[in-house]
Amino acid sequence: MLDILLDSFLDSLKVFGIAFLFYLIFSFLNEKITSGFKKHPAISPLIGASCGLIPQCGISVVAADMYQKKQISRGTILAIFFACSDEALFILASDKDKVIYLLPLLVIKFVFALLLGYTVDMLYRKRENIEVSSDLKMDCCEHHHHEEQKILGHILHAFYHCFKIFLYVFIVNLCMGMLVYFIGEPAILQFLGQNEALGPVFAVLIGLIPNCASSILMSELFIINGLSFGALVAGLSVNAGLGFIYLFKYKAQRIETLKLIGILFFYALGIGYLIYLIMRGF
Question: Taking Cα atoms as reference points, which of 273, 259, 268, 215 lies closest to residue 74?
Fold first, then answer.
């Protein structure tokens, strides 16, 4: 039992170190990212797909806020949401056996996010009226905005957020370790293996849970070979952090939000099964 605690702590600590470095760097780029949407609306799906790859859960919230203000298009927000992977990138980067999947994951999510964004914008071009505000700014976590003007504020904000990630990763690792200890990894993998074809469906349902713990859980299952790479891609592609929750706050946006979820759900599921079938050689 002590080994499980120690292993969970050390694995979580590695993730914390990687996450802190990323969050600290990108906390200085928030304003530049947001201004990019304002200055280049024609290529906003491209900017969105690129920004979505940034392992920063605030991106989806910012995108949701900009979308409900009609400052970005439907295709742009879908590109951002599809490209998001959040804490999964840190989990894969910290595992020596699965780190090789990190680049393919990013490339696949970027390419298909771009395709989704431009396709949706082309289909809905005549129905949308995008308003670009001259005072556009990133207002995610506004209670930290005044601190982020200072270097110390950036450090504290990154540390605080990464500490929460550390706790989530530790809890998920501990639970996975306990399952393996009491049930046995072969039994778990046998159960998941018997339902491998349903992996993408399970993954997208888990991915819709608005919490970073869902991306952590999927990543941990992938590491122990409980999920296929296709299932992982599908699940992470609907895991838009708190973005959908933010949109649901607005009653007038709820039907539209359900439409966005539906588009993302079936698109991610299709991509997941496509990758799954390709890797199995049809």
Answer: 259
Alpha-carbon dihedral 25, 243, 122, 128, rounded to 10 degrees = -120
Tell me how far apart the alpha carbons of residues 17 and 253 are, in angstroms, rounded to a whole number: 38
Q: How far is the C-alpha of 53 from the C-alpha of 124, rounded, in Å?
A: 24
Q: What is the DSSP letter of 102?
A: H
**The Cα angle at residue 128 between residues 126 and 131, in degrees rounded to 5:** 130
Residue from 113, 129, 128, 137 nearest 46 by CA: 113
User: pTM score, two decimals?
Assistant: 0.71
Beta strands in 173-242 (DSSP E): none
The amino acid occupying position 175 is C
Q: Which two tokens stand for residue 188?
A: 């778990």
Reported as a single tens digit per residue, the pLDDT across 229-256 is 999 999 999 987 677 877 887 777 788 8
